[in-house]
Amino acid sequence: MTSRAPQRVIFCDFDGTITENDNIVAIIKHFNPPGWEAIVNDIVGQRKTIRQGVGELFQLLPSSMKREVVDYAISNATIRAGFADLLQYCKDHDIEFYVTSGGIDFFVYPLLAQFNIPENHIYCNGSDFSGEQIAITWPHPCEGECKTDCGMCKTTIIRRFPKSQYERILIGDSVTDFEGAKLADVVFARSHLTQKCKELGLSYHEFKTFHDVIDVLKLQEATT
Length: 224
Ligand SMILES: [Mg+2]
Ligand SMILES: [Zn+2]
Prior knowledge:
Layout: E1 7-12, H1 23-31, H2 36-44, H3 50-59, H4 66-76, H5 83-92, E2 96-104, H6 105-112, E3 122-128, E4 135-137, H7 154-158, E5 166-172, H8 178-183, E6 186-189, H9 192-200, E7 205-206, H10 210-223
Parallel strand pairs: 1-2, 1-5, 2-3, 5-6, 6-7
Antiparallel strand pairs: 3-4
Bound molecules: magnesium ion and zinc ion.
Magnesium ion is lined by residues 13, 15-17, 22, 172-174, 176.
């Protein structure tokens, strides 16, 4: 009998992880509609659910600003160093790679277009510009055990990859990753997520670029 190493699968956040900064916060800060700061503080402080807070933030912006909002989001974002190398590493080493983003389709898909990630490996929220104000849509809501009202529910997706068959690796930076980090076998963290992991006593690898992530994956490869 040979025992096979579990299939590795990565769940990678988008805002503040694949991109250097949080695009939702950047958009709202830039257009600066009255009342946004209290909402952001309530999301970060976990007094509002992510779905509720993000929905409220975009409701502050009129749909007539679509072009400006989309253009700003896309031109403002910077992809974190090493991302293309991580994707290549995953291909070469048979690691499944999913983008699990609390971000919005109108910036997530255009910013990822150059990387040729299959569309069914990208999970994010949707948007609807047909009303007066921008509405966010939620095609991937919490199912089953998750009662967190995530919006795009990372744990719902992670649970589709059972622990018995997969080594589940989460890469993230902030509040949309807190629940997933509790479930994952390996966590790569920066920013608020490192703080949360410390609070919860979860072990994590801190990263600044995706080269840091690759270095740890290589070490794991060498020891299994
Ligand atoms: Mg993030
Ligand atoms: Zn959820």
